[in-house]
């Protein structure tokens, strides 16, 4: 994995600020009656207005600037004419390319009143991300981070989506290595100061097994249970982690 220079890190930091703000603004638009394509149109225009490029658009042929997943959809859902409803769980996943460097982040949230179980799912999945980040530092094994994410989710009675991973990031939207959300302490590669990675725990109420939808993009839970995803782009520092996509 590439160690980023000070100037490269500053470009990623600027990218991350744009990304955090567009997620914050897009979340406000996710109200009952709104079509998900409207949200994507806003996200795309916002990113371009900041002299940036949507990382997702045309990445491996993906035709939109964001992924907007609902309920049993875990990730990679195409924006469409689908209308957001009261009680939906929404996942917004967006990437920003600024001056040659990418950041990637995702948030999940409920629309209006949602069930207590869905509330718990959101709370636990976000906690898993933050717990994983809390372990990150120079010379830490990635397995320590993965194990912390896994135990946070499973100890709460939910399932870790096992076949989808976090990843390195920088000049490319997805750089090596892949970072699963399950692991064993003391294993895997060693984190080094200056690395930039994306941690993105995904959890489901029911099975961890997933399937590809008929559109050949959206990943859904096999049993139709609700899922959640949270993601940050982070910089490994000497003593911990610097979250480049933190939402103020």
Based on the model shown, name its key terms.
248 residues, globular, alpha+beta, Creatine Amidinohydrolase
Describe the structure.
This protein is α+β, with helices and mostly antiparallel strands and 248 residues long. It has one domain (6-243): Alpha-Beta Complex (Creatine Amidinohydrolase), CATH 3.90.230.10. The chain is 29% helix and 27% strand. It is built from four helices and 15 strands. It has helices at 6-29, 36-49, 116-135, 142-155, and strands at 53-54, 66-70, 73-75, 89-98, 101-110, 159-160, 165-168, 175-180, 196-199, 202-204, 210-212, 219-221, 227-229, 232-236, 241-243. A five-stranded antiparallel beta sheet has the order 8-7-9-14-15, with helices on one face. The longest helix is centred in the N-terminal third of the chain and has 24 residues, at 6-29. The relative contact order is 0.19. The model has no long low-confidence stretch (mean pLDDT 97).
Layout of helices and strands, plus pairs?
Elements (H helix, E strand, L loop, with lengths): L5 H24 L6 H14 L3 E2 L11 E5 L2 E3 L13 E10 L2 E10 L5 H20 L6 H14 L3 E2 L4 E4 L6 E6 L15 E4 L2 E3 L5 E3 L6 E3 L5 E3 L2 E5 L4 E3 L5
Antiparallel strand pairs: 1-4, 2-4, 3-12, 4-5, 6-10, 7-8, 7-9, 9-14, 10-13, 11-12, 14-15
Helix pairs in contact: 1-2, 3-4
Q: Structural class from helices and strands?
A: alpha+beta
CATH fold topology: Creatine Amidinohydrolase
Proportion of beta-strand residues? 25-35%
The geometry reads as: globular
Can you count the beta strands? 15
CATH 2nd-level architecture: Alpha-Beta Complex
Please give the alpha-carbon distance between the first and last residues.
28 Å
Unreliable spans: none
- Compute the CA-based radius of gyration: 17 Å
Helix/strand order: HHEEEEEHHEEEEEEEEEE
In what order do the strands lie side by side in the largest sheet?
8-7-9-14-15
What integer is the average pLDDT?
97
Helix segment tally: 4
In the CATH scheme, the class would be: Alpha Beta
How many distinct folded domains?
1
Helix content: 25-40%
User: For this structure, what is the CATH homologous superfamily?
Assistant: Creatinase/methionine aminopeptidase superfamily
Question: Main beta sheet, described?
Answer: 5 strands, antiparallel
């Amino acid at each position: 994995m590439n160690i980023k220079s000070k100037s490269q890190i500053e470009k990623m930091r600027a990218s991350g600020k744009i990304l955090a703000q567009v997620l914050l603004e897009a979340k406000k638009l996710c109200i009952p009656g709104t079509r998900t394509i409207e949200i994507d149109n806003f996200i795309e225009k916002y990113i371009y207005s900041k002299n940036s490029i949507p990382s997702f658009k045309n990445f491996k042929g993906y035709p939109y600037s964001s992924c907007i997943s609902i309920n049993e959809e875990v990730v990679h859902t195409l924006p469409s004419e689908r209308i957001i409803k009261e009680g939906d769980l929404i996942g917004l996943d967006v990437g920003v390319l600024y001056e040659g460097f990418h950041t990637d982040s995702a948030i999940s949230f409920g629309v209006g009143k949602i069930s207590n179980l869905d509330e718990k799912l959101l709370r636990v999945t976000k906690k898993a991300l933050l717990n994983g980040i809390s372990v990150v530092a120079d010379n830490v094994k990635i397995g320590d981070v993965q194990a912390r994410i896994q135990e946070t989710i499973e100890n709460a009675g939910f399932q870790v989506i096992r076949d989808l991973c976090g990843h390195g990031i920088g000049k490319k939207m997805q750089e090596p290595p892949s970072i699963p959300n399950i692991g064993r302490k003391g294993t895997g590669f060693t984190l080094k100061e200056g690395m930039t990675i994306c941690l993105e725990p995904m959890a489901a109420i029911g099975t961890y097994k997933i399937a590809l939808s008929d559109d050949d993009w959206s990943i859904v839970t096999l049993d139709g249970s609700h899922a959640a995803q949270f993601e940050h782009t982070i910089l490994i520092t000497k003593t911990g982690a610097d979250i480049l996509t933190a939402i103020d």
